[in-house]
Amino acid sequence: MPMMLEMALAPERLGEGSPEERAAFGLFTIRSAHGFLTEGFDSFINGYRSGPLVSGYHVAEWLAWNWWRLRWEPRSVAPDWDWDNAHRMTAIGEGYVWPNVTIFSDGLRTALLSAPSSRSEAKPFRYVGALPTVIPSTAFEAAIDEFILQILGRIEAEGVKDSNLSRLWDDLAAERNDPGIAKRRKLEAYLGRDPDAVEDDAVEQLVADAVGMGDAAVEEIAADSRAEKIFTGADIRELARSCGHHGSPRDAVKLDSAHEVSRGADTPAWLMGARLAQELRAQEKLGVTAISDRRLAELAGTKVATINAKDDVRSPKLSFVLDEGATESRIVLWSNRQTGRRFNLARLIGDRLIDASGALHPATRASTYRQKAQRAFAAELLSPFDAVDAFLAGDYSAEKQDDAAGVFDVSEMTINSLLKNNGRIPRDDRDFEFENAAV
Q1: Mean pLDDT for back-to-back runs of 10 residues, the chain (439 residues)
Q2: pLDDT, tens digit, for every residue of 314-332?
Q3: Cis peptide leading into 124, omega within 30 of 0?
Q4: Are 68 and 186 within 8 A, CB to CB?
Q5: Cys-Cys crosslink for 265: which of 84, 136, 202, 356, Cβ 3.0 to 4.6 Å?
Q6: Which of 424, 343, 430 is nearest to 132 (CA)?
Q7: What is the dihedral of CA 222, 224, 229, 235, to 10 degrees?
Q8: Domains of the chain: which residue ranges?
Q9: Cα 53 from chain centroid?
Q10: 208 Cβ contact list (under 8 Å, min separation 6)
Q11: Can you tell me the distance from the alpha carbon of 424 to that of 396, in angstroms, rounded to the nearest whole number?
Q12: Distance CA 45, CA 102 (A)
C-alpha cells in the first residue's frame, strides 16, 4: 500500500531555547504520495530543502491541542481568525517560518493544502507549495499520532520529563478512549470550538437530542456552526410543528440491493452522491429528462403541495425531515423559490439513502461529507449530467447554463456545480475542497 502521509523530524543541533525546543529541533517534513508539502528554498544554504529547520516540539503541541478540530471541523466558508488558528500551520508561532499548510476534514476525508510563501523573496525559507493532498481521515490520525510519539520519544531521550506536550497527549488519549467525552469533544469541534470552550449546557443538550434524533444527524446540525444559532431538538420540533408539511417515511423511496452504491473515504462526496442519484433514476425508470414536482414529491413520500407552498420567509436556513413514526414525518423546506424547494427536497431524499438511521434528516450549509453528497445527489437527480452536457454541447457560457437551468427546473448554480464536479469548467480555489476522483 503506498505511503499516504508522513510527518517526520530529522534531528539537528540548536544552541539556545528551552530544553524541549532544543531536544526536538531538526528538519521538519510532511510528505504525501505526491511529494513534500514542506519543500522550499533555504537562503542559508542557497538551495532547496524538503522542509525547514524548526522545533518539532511546537508542531506536536499544536497538533495535540487542535486534534479534535483538525479531525472533525469542516472548512469555514468565510474568513475566520479562530478557524485559521486551528487549521493553518502558519499560526503555530514561536518565531519560526512555518509551512503554509492548511488542514481540514469533511469527517471522512482530510485535505492538506500546501501553498507557496506569499512573498517571492521570503527569507530564511521560501515555501514552493505542493499538489493538494487528500487522504482518509483515519490515515491522517495515524500520521499525527506517529509524529507526536516520535517527538515525545526524542525529548524524553534528551532527559526532558513532564513536558506540556506529554500532559496534552495523555489528556487527548484519555478523551479519545472515553466514548462519552469523545462524543462531546467531537460536537465541540463541529461547533468550531476548542475543548471546553462551549458552555456545558449547550453540549449536553446536543448529546440529549442525539438520543431521539440520532448521533449523526445532530452532528450535522452542530457542523453548521456558522448558522445564526445552534438548533436544539426543541427548536427542530417547534419548526416541524409550525412550518412542517406532512410526509410518510414508509412512502419515501429506497434503493434496492441491485442498485447499491459503494461508499468510503476513497470516493469523493460529490461522486458518491451523483452515483446514488444515477442508481435511483435507473431503478425508478426516470430516464434523463426533468422530474415533475409531483414525481419528486412522490419520491420523498409527500404531496406536491409541499413543494408549491409559500412558507413563512422568516423560517431558518435549514431544511429537514423529522420522522414521528413509521407513517408520519414533518418536512421543512427552507426557501420560497420553486427551484430552491425542489433542490432542498431532493437533498432530503438523498439523505435518507445516504444514512437511513435516526429520526432526523437535516440539509444544512455545512461542508461535511454527508452534506456535500446530498447536494451532488440533488443536482444529479434533478439535472442528470449526461443530459445537461448534451444540451450544452460544449457551450459552457453563463447564458447557456441559464438555459439549461430552465430546462431542468433548477438554479443556474446547480448547473454550474455539475459542470465543476465533472471537470467541464475549473473549480475556484475555495471550491477545491477534496473533490478529486482519487485519494
Answers
A1: 82 90 96 95 93 96 97 84 94 92 95 89 88 94 97 94 95 97 95 84 91 94 78 93 94 91 89 96 95 97 93 73 93 91 97 94 95 96 95 95 95 93 79 47
A2: 567 899 999 998 899 999 9
A3: yes
A4: yes
A5: 136
A6: 430
A7: -60
A8: 5-176, 213-431
A9: 32
A10: 233
A11: 8
A12: 27
Residue 145 cell numbers, joined: 499520532
Cα separation, 199 vs 358, whole angstroms: 26
Site of grid cell 413563512:
312
Q: pTM of the full predicted structure?
A: 0.92
Cα-to-chain-centroid distance, residue 43:
37
Question: What pLDDT, on the 0 to 100 scale, is given for residue 4?
Answer: 86
Give the phi and the psi of residue 4 in degrees, each rounded to 5: -95, -45
Q: Which cell goes with 51?
A: 522542509
The Cα–Cα gap between 18 and 42 comes to: 24
> Quick one: DSSP state of residue 258?
G
Beginning with the edge strand found earlier in the chain, give each strand of the sheet holding 40-42 in spatial order. Answer: 47-49, 40-42, 125-127
Residue 49 has phi, psi (to 5 degrees) of -125, 160
- CA torsion angle 51 55 59 62 (round to 10): -150
Residue 85 C-alpha from the chain's centroid: 18
With beta carbons less than 8 A apart as the criterion, state whether 129 and 122 touch: no
Sheet holding 109-114, edge to edge: 101-105, 109-114, 133-136
Given CA atoms 181, 186, 190, 196 in this order, what sign does their dihedral have? positive
For the record, the C-alpha cell of 165 comes out as: 506536550
d(CA 103, CA 63): 10
Q: Which three cell numbers stand for residue 253?
A: 423511496
- Residue 233 corresponds to which cell in the numbers above? 431538538
